Structures are given as C-alpha cells and as structure tokens.
Amino acid sequence: KTRKSTLLELSGVSVSFDGFKAINNLSFQIGEPEMRAIIGPNGAGKTTFMDIITGKTKPDEGRVLWGDDGISLLGLSESRIARAGVGRKFQKPTVFEAQTVRENLAMALKAPRGPFDVLFHKKTRAGAEKIEALAAQIGLLEQLPRIAGELSHGQKQWLEIGMLLAQEPRLLLVDEPAAGMTPAEREKTTEMLVEAAKTRAVVVVEHDMEFVRRLNCRVTVLNEGSVLAEGSIDHVTSDPQVIEVYLGR
Ligand code: ADP
Known about the structure:
By secondary structure, the chain is of the alpha/beta class. The chain is built from nine helices and ten strands. The longest helix is centred in the middle third of the chain and has 14 residues, at 153-166.
C-alpha cells in the first residue's frame, strides 16, 4: 500500500438549523489520493457535510483543515475553497446544453476553478490534445462534435465529470452519480471515478449499494449527523447498528 497524506480533516464539527443538529460532532479524514463512499439514510447529513467542505455552510463548532499545511477552510469563501482545489458535482448534470461537447470541455479547461461562468464561454481551438485526452477519459471522444443538449443523461453526467477534472481538483465531491443510469452506464461511471481517484481524493455520496461495492473503497456511514461506521463495504454492511438504521426505517 502506498502512503497517503491527509488532504482534508474535519474534527468535532457541528451544525444546527433552528436548534436541530444536522451535523453532530463529526470527524472525518480523507487522504490524497483516495476514493471514499459516503452512505446513510435520508436526513443523515450527507448534503450538509458536503456543504461544509465547499464552504456553503459554516459549522458552529469544530475544525476543517485542508492540504499539506492544514490550513483552515472555515474563514474562506466558497470560491476561494474551489480555487484551493475542491470540485463538486451535483446530482443534476449542469453542462452548457447549446454548446458542443468540445466547447464545453474547452471552456472548462480555460475557466478558473469554481462554478463555470458564461464569461468563459469562448470558442477556442487551443488545447485540442488536452480536450481529446479528457474526452477519452470520460468515454466521449466520438461525441466531441455533438451538441451537449443531445447527449443521454449518462453522457451529460460524464461530460460534467470531465469538466470538473479539467480543473484538476485535489478533492472531487460527487453526489449520486449513478442515479438514473443504465447498468452499462453505471459500470462506465465506476471506472471513470476509480481512475480519477488514482491521482486525487474523490468522495462519492451514493444510495446504490451495488455501485458503492464496485467502487471498492473505504465507506463512511453517516447517521444523525455523525459517523456511525467506517470501513470496507462488507464491514459496514455487517455492522448491527448500520443494519438497524437501514432496515429500521
Ligand atoms: P442527507 O443529504 O443525508 O439527506 P441533509 O444534509 O440534507 O441530509 O439534511 C440533514 C438534516 O438537516 C435533515 O434533517 C434536514 O432536514 C436538515 N437540514 C438540512 N439543511 C437545512 C436547512 N437549510 N434548514 C433547515 N434544516 C436543514
């Protein structure tokens, strides 16, 4: 096993909404590179957890430390955190539907890290090799001239993953990538994420247990805003507390 250095560390993090603790004394670490799956029932705090990392939600308590020097992300804006290397893929694909796949990737390669801005929508011939390498990585080489709006749901998801990878995030947060995909698309998505996680930290929030199993990574189970269990998929799914949380709903 290669040694991984810690990229992100949360400790003792709590967040309340109107007195309700959505995140409760949560501690979490991820290395670089590493793949991690986050599972947990609805309301477990998965979205809030990602919102804390990206700076959208600021915790009431605790520490969020980033990078080799362990700088605190707490005082930083969302855009500053994105520039530091945190990329986020929401569930719904957000690509520029009227542009081609090539234009989408070209734009992402030129844009600074952070939410894609229409200001950066400029046609470009630059970086053709980079665009093609990226397209190959996301299985869309043949689709480069196509209008993004005509892609299948799965292809749009891959395109957005490609656009995020173009920005070379050190940590990529991905929310339910397999939702709405065919089994074949799920398989390709697995390969893509596993490949991406060879050189960076990837956190995948996912409900589909088969998908999580195929990621073949450490799994963190959230429940009531805390870590309920952590380990291999076999370890966490045989944990009596995890079984109770999932079956006892
Ligand atoms: P998950 O993504 O695991 O379903 P969430 O992080 O969305 O969980 O939510 C955790 C809990 O916090 C839920 O009970 C939810 O209703 C509550 N919550 C999340 N965001 C807000 C908010 N902005 N205002 C009030 N309650 C919220």
